[in-house]
Amino acid sequence: MTWISPLKAFGVRELLSVESMFKSHREACLVIVSKSMDSDTGTQILNPFVKKGFRVTASAPDFKYIFKGTHAESWFQKLKEGNVNPGEVFLGQNLSNLLRLALLYKFGGAYIEADVVVLKIFSKLRNTIGALNLDPRTGEWSRLNNAVLVFDKKHPLLFKFIQEFALTFDGNKWGHNGPYLILRVVSRVRRNQQEGFEKTKGMVSNVTSPFYL
Q1: What pLDDT is stored for residue 194 in this prediction?
Q2: Is the four-CA dihedral 23, 26, 32, 38 of positive or negative sign?
Q3: C-alpha distances in angstroms, 127 versus 46, 77, 169?
Q4: Which residues neighbour 142 within 8 Å (Cβ) at sequence distance 6 or greater?
């Protein structure tokens, strides 16, 4: 998870999300990447889970380390130098959009947002994206979301997501650097697959809707 809000905003809803995750995945290791949660008070909030034997911790992000070796590295450097317009959308939200992609690219694993309630085991899923809308007749998705992402380490699709973020960043459009970015890239890759571009074969193995509504 990532948590960009103040510590006091981590409330009942977020605790329910953590509880639901451990209810389905008792052996999971949950890292909440957050500056505010990586504190004494944050530790107290998570301590009831730790006392019950669940593996959960909070860690402030080291952006330089996490972004290193990806397109995010140069984009973030330009941002710090004042050469990227952060726009009107809260910058923390867009950093969270990028951070989850970079974390999965560097380490692999599963990302879920702090308001997602997990209803069943998803540990067998690989390289999967949660869908927001599905056609009830065909089962085909029409919209994707970045609230649930499950990927192998250094998956090429994650590389493309990060590249798209760096090249097309727009801080004035909500969702442009988040769910709509995921939709743009996956739609482009699928279209290339259908048109016979061998370099994209096998890049998208699953696009499904196991958790997110």
Answers
A1: 57
A2: positive
A3: 29, 29, 24
A4: 133, 134, 135
Residues 125 and 96 in one domain: yes
The backbone region for 190, taken as left when phi is positive above 0, alpha when psi lies in -120 to 50, beta otherwise, is alpha
Q: H or E segment at 130?
A: strand 128-134
Nearest in space to 130 (alpha carbons), one of 141, 117, 119:
141
Q: For residues 195 and 163, state if they share a domain.
A: yes
User: Residue 139: what pLDDT?
Assistant: 72
Tell me if 65 is assigned to some domain.
Answer: no
Helices (H), 52-128: 63-67, 71-80, 91-107
What pLDDT is recorded for position 132?
Answer: 80
Residues 6+ apart with CB under 8 A from 45: 7, 10, 15, 37
Q: How many residues does the chain have?
A: 213
Which of the residues in the chain have pLDDT under 50? 196-213
The rounded distance, in Å, linking the Cα atoms of 89 and 175 is 9
State pTM to two decimals. Answer: 0.89
Which domain, by its residues, includes 1? 1-60
pLDDT digits (tens, 9 = 90+) for 178-196: 999 999 999 998 887 655 4
